Give the backbone structure.
Amino acid sequence: MTAQIKWDAPSRFVEIEGNPIPARAEVGLHKMRDGKMLRGGVFYPEGTPRGTLVLMTGYSEFIEKYFETVADFSARGFVVVMPEWRGHGLSDGDGMEPTRLHLKNFDTNLTDLEDRWAALIAPLPKPHFGLAHSMGGQISLRAVQAHPEWLTALA
């Protein structure tokens, strides 16, 4: 499968010893409506995908922390897409420290996911499944409440 994502700017993965970057991966930045640049990662399986897993992380987590999980789902034939939240990893943040999470309103995370859905997730093979942890669970539950058509299932 070839890359299908149109990024607003390039980005990179952080190399961590003992935690290799999965094969067939791409990473980039998308510009949010408020101008912040948020990173996303897409990981493609070998062969024809069975669907796409939208992996939504918890507080203080970042794409690279999930490389082992990504590899497991890719080996099962799924494209894995990870929208990184503002203030996490290499994504812009708000507040005094631009790389730290500071939200004035929880709607911000939902708005960020909405801003990225068409560019980052919708082009990927269906069905779309969600897998969320901690803060990602709160965001994903709000997302399926507002957009029930987005995901076939959520765990």
